[in-house]
Amino acid sequence: MGTIVASTEIKKVRDLFIGEHVTFANIFRMFISMEPSPLTEQIDQWFGSLMAGLRAFPLDFPGTTFHRARKCRQKLNAVFRHELEARKKVDKKCDDLMSGLMCTEDEQGKRLSDEEVVDNMVNLVVAGYESTASAIMWATYHLAKSPAALAKLREENMAVSESKGGSLMITHDDLPRMKYTAKVVEETIRMANVAPMVHRVANRDVEYGGYTIPAGWPVLVWVRSLHTDPVYYQDPLTFNPDRWDKPAKPGTYQAFGGGYRICAGNMLAKLQITIMLHHLSTGYEWELLNPDAKINYLPHPRPMDGASMTFRKLRA
Ligand code: HEM
């Protein structure tokens, strides 16, 4: 059993498992039926630069993060546009999101414009890619620091795998048996706060904490402060999956926002993290190289060293 030393900075966590960028590869297969290739590697980099510019100061001239993000956005639009035109030319339909968006009709039989299809494609990758990959990184980080939780997770997932003759393929039917795994996913998402804020506008005057928020004011729900409030979460900075034996008090768990605009991909995100945890916990053990590395919170929370870890295969 060799020891792999690798930076698990999101991409590398994905690399470790099946030798490719799992989250990105999954998203690309589901969204546009593209297999990993030099082009998808390039697209991956453009998305990275676009993400970096999301919360950058909006200075749009060469050399700034914001400018780079805008340029990358244009390149991404061009790639999706090219694929869309190619499909239209030969009337090609795939079992993926792009074809779904191209064919969807509203009650009046109206379809999305090409621009709307491309816009939705880019936005959905932005919404669903780095957020989920980052949550997977945080799951491995917290589990590396919580051996007891990792042991319970491994026990549950080994049992699931053994009951299927050692198969690593989990299906929807296995999920009811993966109760502890579900709690690890929930606790990871609570602590990771990969989407640090939720945006709203007050649609009427609201009294809150002795203040009045006037109608029309923009409001930022700072999710981390909610998720680390000891009034709602006992010992909030401790990774404790068992706290999810009881559901959170309504309104105190906003990792995916809430109401009409709740994250459209929340179930998909949880499923992807669950699958990844199943494979990692049954196949590997891992250790943080710098457990006390400082955390950078903006633009997205991550350990400053990218969560460098050693991974070791549990079985051949
Ligand atoms: C751990 C992973 C994820 C986190 C923490 C997350 C978090 C969020 C948050 C906080 C919002 C704003 C919700 C609100 O304003 O109430 C949001 C919106 C959204 N998310 Fe996610 N998300 C994740 C994964 C995904 C995935 C995998 C997809 C789809 C592929 C996705 C698609 C969307 C979409 C389409 C919206 C906009 C919904 C709307 O405005 O109606 N997200 N997400």
TrEMBL record:
Pathway membership: Hormone biosynthesis; Plant hormone biosynthesis
Positions contributing to heme binding: C263
GO MF term list: heme binding; iron ion binding; monooxygenase activity; oxidoreductase activity, acting on paired donors, with incorporation or reduction of molecular oxygen
Single GO BP term: brassinosteroid homeostasis
Keywords for this protein: Heme, Iron, Membrane, Metal-binding, Monooxygenase, Oxidoreductase, Transmembrane, Transmembrane helix
Cofactor: heme
Alphabetized Pfam families for the sequence: p450
Similarity comment text for this entry: Belongs to the cytochrome P450 family.
Designated name of the protein: Ent-kaurenoic acid oxidase
